[in-house]
Here is the input.
Amino acid sequence: MTRFKELDPILHSQLRLAVISLLVGTEVAEFTYIREQTGATAGNLSIQITKLKEAGYIEVTKKFRNNYPLTLCSITKLGREKFTEYVKDLRDYLSPEKPE
Amino acid sequence: MENEEKMMTGEESLRIITEMINRTKVNIRQGSFHLLLWGWLLTFCSLSDWLLARFTSFAHPYYVWYLIIPGAFVSMIYGFVTGRKAKVHTYADMLYMWTWIGFFITSTVLFIVQAKSMESVAPYILLLAGLPTFLSGFIIKFKPLITGGICFWVIALLVHFAGPALAPLGTPVAMLIGYLIPGYMLKNRVDHDKV
Here is the structure.
């Protein structure tokens, strides 16, 4: 029987995976942009971003633009490595090598 | 995406990854402004240079090319302002921006080095301009720009062999095919996407 490596629980969640997948192709993205693209509510997105940040997968910077708070997110080196690993594990899971 | 801990199948994970990555792939926000600005500015400069040289006794018709300096400022200010307003900076955006900044620096150096023989610079500028135009077409997945880049290279060759009478007309033709047509097509696409 083929044994599968367990998928990273931090990434194996709809919204967190969507956030990381968005950030993989960007240098930096605003919180509002991520909310628009994922269609998530601000509260839910905020919780998931905090979880990704605590895991060290993303970096969150708070700034001000025209006196309004601005939250910027970017993926870290660890986040990129974990995402690559997740995609590899997912590929193995979806098309496992047949045992000889 | 409301249920943050909802269990996903492998296929669902793959679908989310593909969908999100595709959203950050192509961004044509700024593209048309710079193409139209430079397309019209360089067409004006090259035609004025040619008309002044051919029909007037003005000793320095190439002075019109100094309009490139305010053009560069307008381009930089527009890029800076829209860049600051942008909610996201994709790697494609950065690649697009640095490709054109690289071209701008190379052209500036060429103008300085060749300042005494401005009339012979045109084929080199066209040759150089072909590269960022061609690459930008690939970055934003826009074929008219790829075609425009190839036309720049072909016209650079034609200008080199055309002789002094026809060579000055190479730049306006290149601007039309390489910048203005793709620029207006891109603008229409962006306007259409906004509706």
